[in-house]
Amino acid sequence: MIPQELIKKIRQIQIYTSRAVDASFAGQYESVFKGRGMQFDEVREYTPGDDIRTIDWNVTARTGRPYIKRYVEEREMTVLFAVDLSASSDFGTVNKAKNELAAEFCAVLAFAAAKNNDKVGLLIFTDQIELYIPPKKGISHMLRLVRELLYFKMPKRKTNIGEALDYLGKVIRKKATMFLVSDFIEADFKRPLSLLNKRHDVIAVTVRDKAEISLPGIGLIEFADAETGEIILIDTSSRKLRNQYSNTAAMRFDELKNMLRTINVDCISISTDKPYIQDLVRFFHMRHKRY
Question: Which of 118, 188, 263, 273 is deepest in the core (most CB within 10 A)?
Fold first, then answer.
């Protein structure tokens, strides 16, 4: 049985995300993530004024009369969220943990997709595939995805982004828009991401916490690596150490963004200490201008 606290949390997310979608980007989602091209509709006899480039020469030769192929815009879209819920995602020092932020972010886009009558699927992964829910339509399906994200029991596992990307390449055959949601602690996944992005539209969503970007000067702190269990003691009163920490974090993030740029993967960065709706709106504006 689902705990009442979780049911309340799901309801709160549903109300919040529905309002956010309506208020911030109800029309932008459709304009940016509309159908990904044209699909075949029918073959019909040629009439004066039709584009001769659409003539179906095989049918024309077989019947002795000119026929054309008719195409229509493919409106229905498939959206898939690949969410990294390894041990490092169960961390947050401000408003919420990274895994909670990831669930809420996915919920916003899932409800936007539901309003546009799109199919939505979910992959939860760590260093292995934890859960896969094939794309479907409907609000009840979206609520199930949110429930699974929030109710997922966090294993003490590491991350294997490459394995998740390879899995998606096998199970999703039709072109889809995929949001890869992770803190991207792992770095060795450029090749599988590049290959997947050639067949699909992959967007990286980096989820970070303020403490992973800079350290407060509050003296001795005991740090535990959530994925390895290693514990170290750090003296945060040292300005040199804090600067080194911030510079290293910034360098790693820049390396990630540069790598994504080289393989034409867009990136949305969200953090537990600030609202993400405006970041999403800016992303929509950027996409709209490009296309």
Answer: 118
| Closest of 13, 96, 207 to residue 5, by C-alpha | 13
Residues 23 and 147 in one domain: yes
Strand partners, 72: 39
- Distance of alpha carbon 40 from alpha carbon 52, whole angstroms: 16
**CB contact at 8 A, 89 and 270:** no
Other Cβ atoms within 10 Å of 156 Cβ, number: 12
Q: Over the stretch 248-280, which tens digit does the pLDDT of each residue have?
A: 889 999 999 999 999 999 999 999 888 888 788
Q: What is the CATH number of the domain that holds 12?
A: 3.40.50.410
Q: Are residues 129 and 27 in the same domain?
A: yes
Domain check: are 50 and 154 in the same one? no
Q: Where is 180: in which H helix or E strand?
A: strand 177-182
Model-wide pTM > 0.90: no
